[in-house]
Amino acid sequence: METFKEIDVRSLLPQQPPFVMVDSLLHCDPVFTSTDLAIAADNIFVSDGKLTESGMIENIAQTCAARMGYIHRMLQGSEVKTGFIGAIRNLNIYFLPQVGDVLKTEIEVKSEVFNITLVEAKVTVNNILAAECEMKISE
């Protein structure tokens, strides 16, 4: 079995460049998933040298997409499906990461009912909490 870092994350995502907001899958199990993203100057969500709020939200959503892509493609051998953000609650963005920073995004599944998944998400930079929220994702 290959390690998570050896998987081309783009094969797990419905999004494609320049809209990919995850560099690699670090871990994925039924409850916990983590990814990373190095913020590049040419990232479409960078403004004035910082990742925007919408970029941070998209990073969380794509971490959810990487989880589902891993489950569908790697475990079930099926196609990657497009998901949608159903709701965002309790969003707190504590600071905007800068170009060159590396985000580590972690999601924890709180519930799954039919095709709707509720996760708690945390984004850190150098182990400092940058953002957190609850997100509902629908397939």
Brief description of this entry?
The protein has one helix at residues 53-75, and strands at residues 24-28, 32-38, 46-47, 50-51, 84-93, 102-113, 116-125, 128-138.
Would you kindly provide a written description of the structure presented here, covering whatever features stand out?
This protein has about 140 residues and is α+β, with helices and mostly antiparallel strands. It has a single domain, classed as Hotdog Thioesterase (Thiol Ester Dehydrase, Chain A, Roll). The chain contains one helix and eight strands. The model has no long low-confidence stretch (mean pLDDT about 95).
Give the helices and strands, then pairings.
Elements (H helix, E strand, L loop, with lengths): L23 E5 L3 E7 L7 E2 L2 E2 L1 H23 L8 E10 L8 E12 L2 E10 L2 E11 L1
Antiparallel strand pairs: 1-2, 2-6, 3-4, 5-8, 6-7, 7-8
Fill in the keyword field for this structure.
42% strand; two-stranded antiparallel ribbon; 1 helix; Thiol Ester Dehydrase, Chain A; six-stranded antiparallel sheet; 8 strands; 139 residues
Would you state the CATH class? Alpha Beta
Strand order of the largest sheet: 1-2-6-7-8-5
Question: Can you summarize the main beta sheet?
Answer: 6 strands, antiparallel
List the uncertain runs.
Answer: none
Helix and strand run: EEEEHEEEE
Structural class of the secondary elements?
alpha+beta
What is the number of domains?
1
Helix coverage percent of residues? 10-25%
CATH fold name: Thiol Ester Dehydrase, Chain A
Average pLDDT over all residues? 94
Shape: globular
Radius of gyration: 14 Å
Report how far the terminal alpha carbons are from each other: 27 Å
By DSSP (H or I, 4+ residues per run), the number of helices equals 1
Amount of beta strand: 35-45%
Under the CATH scheme, which architecture would be assigned?
A: Roll
- Total strands: the figure is 8
CATH level 4 superfamily = Hotdog Thioesterase
